[in-house]
């Protein structure tokens, strides 16, 4: 009898390695830079507004975030942002793109334990170029049968990826820190959806856990995954 | 006997639809915006320097180009670029990302003629998000068995794509306007490389045609492709 589970998909940012804390650190620098021009307590919300407004044009990732910071700086200074501020924002964006990848606890060990028994897939959104760099730097690339960098995480995308690289969504599991992007659409596609919460999750990725979803699970730590997968089959 | 040719890969920008002319138009706006601060004849070279410097961090695409324009504006004004200039650059970048896709002559007809006989692949680099938008808007998506948006076009990438979606590079052909990205690395991977020159090609994509390469061809128009493919087999 074939295994109930053939493929396991992993989100990358804040599931396998730290990401959101780098955005928060950069946001803190941004607030500091503009503290003479606007109430620091308002700035994160102004920046988030710009990010939301630009999402349909820029998609996800550091370059779009950098452009949204520059736009917000112009807004809050009414076009009078001094050059050194814009330059500091450009520098901060480039530093994010050069920032070393820091794995989350248990990531490498868990993938190593699972890699012999299941086909592992990395399924992430964001800047193609930057995500490829992070996969390479993470040292985790060897555990994955395929790396799929996608522009949005929809049920149709999960169905396609799990069909292309596995035995279809019904025999697949998706693991990630975002209920909205990793868990709910995977369950809607017919897969198992496993929430691995991270203490920092971007506002736009937050939502309620699913109700009456027999294929929904939550784990506190990545190293719970091998037992969970074995239980399913 | 199987066909000698199983798959045909197409570059997208300036092979199937216009792209470079939008970059040139935006560059012209950029030069105009900064004409009080620097000799307009020097500005394109200054911008190109920034693009080259940033390529390893930003990769290809409109968002990186926008960030390089802002950086160059700060440079040539010695940090005194007025807010309206930075804002105009942000606007110009966003307009590029919303610009309608204009097909090159013969693109749709040629793909339609080839689609029955060969597996057609779209292989392009650039911003994932923006390229997916352009594929959708182009109306050409239905002709392709697969769309691969890659961060670099190397022989290894061509070998992987033609193996995944075809019968390997030896039975594949790559068609594009860039000798450097579309033709030479495909030939190095063992495929046919067909150059379809475009009147505008970005400086960083230019190079000499290959010598002693029996699998190199050049066409003046896309609609020469079906005969060329039939000749190969």
TrEMBL record, chains A, B:
InterPro entries: HAD-like_sf, HAD_sf, PGP-like_dom2, S-2-haloacid_dehalogenase. Keywords: Hydrolase. The keyword Cell cycle does not apply. One of its GO terms (molecular function) is hydrolase activity. It holds the Pfam family Hydrolase. The keyword Hydrolase applies. This is Putative hydrolase of the HAD superfamily.
